[in-house]
Amino acid sequence: MPDLFVIGGITDAMRARLETAFTIHMASDMDDPEAWLDANGAGIAHVATNGHDGVKRAYTDRLPDLRMISCYGVGYDAIDTDLCRERGVVLTHTPNVLNAEVAATTLLLMLMCYRNALHDEAHARSGAWERDGNAPLSRSAEGRKVGILGMGRIGQEIAHKLAPFDADISYHSRSKKDVPYTYVSDLKEMARDVEVLICITPGGPSTEKLVNAEVMEALGPEGLLINVSRGSVVDEAAMIDALQSGKLGMAGLDVFEQEPHIPDALKAMSNVVLLPHVGSATVETRAAMGSLVVDNLLKHLEDGGAISPVPECADMVT
Ligand code: NAP
Ligand code: 8YV
Questions:
Q1: Residue 228: CB within 6 Å of ligand 1?
Q2: Which of 2, 60, 68, 101 matches a 20 to 30 Å C-alpha distance to 186?
């Protein structure tokens, strides 16, 4: 059977299907994966990885016959697409199957922030309600002006899920989309006009620190920043300053610059809700993502094609 080099983990369901077609080699089981690849890398055409680990250059350099990288996750900023094209390696990812989950996580963060859910839960659980009386009033999430940075697959699903909350939605991206929301060509201008700014662009150099001190100041002392994209999209140090000084009101964060590290300053703030990058992390959605990772690998084995190549590699497969 052909070999599959796996970076990161795979679920039991993925393993069961993959084992029917591949001999699996887990980098995580190896003392020295690079030394293992030096001895065994030639001939390996398939790699499975995820959006966090990507595939480091030390691995691709040791895989001269690499033909496909199947990534568990829609974001692929950790993988060098130029190198993939140069080397004739098809990169696939897992779009769409996680849209609803990531959008639900976004709504969860927005509701937790406005409705002060962490404080209220602690108030109930700790006995403070019985001892000290009612919890202070929170703020309503209804009818808010929401700006979405990145109106792609997930951005559109977030807008859809915001409808029952009567949100007034605008968005910013590099190009105007065919959607019934107000397009704003300037991010700072949009931030100035909204109460909530939701980041859901890809990561990587083109979006690095797009949400900078000026954008956060424009969002303002009553503003809520939600980041479910990549930590790199928001200037984390500037965000901490803005939250500490009151220039920015609140933040709901699923992603961070140096995951899994979260700065202590953020952990100490009560106007911040923190999640450990769990936007898509439900059993159901991760099963769908895993299925698509395997489908792509099996398709490539069967006829050299791919089901969900990244746009940069779309012309390389049928
Ligand atoms: P998508 O369909 O490709 O949408 C991306 C959107 O971002 C598009 O509207 C694009 O429009 C916009 N965009 C790209 N570069 C931009 C820039 N420099 N400035 C402004 N807008 C820009 O991607 P998706 O499937 O919605 O996923 C988006 C991202 O969400 C992923 O890449 C990943 O990083 C993140 N994500 C996070 C989680 C989580 O667990 N927290 C889960 C899934 C995905 P234009 O090209 O017109 O600019
Ligand atoms: C996953 C994600 O946490 O799809 C993405 O881009 O960020 C998440 O769904 C991750 O990619 C799984 O490794």
A1: yes
A2: 101
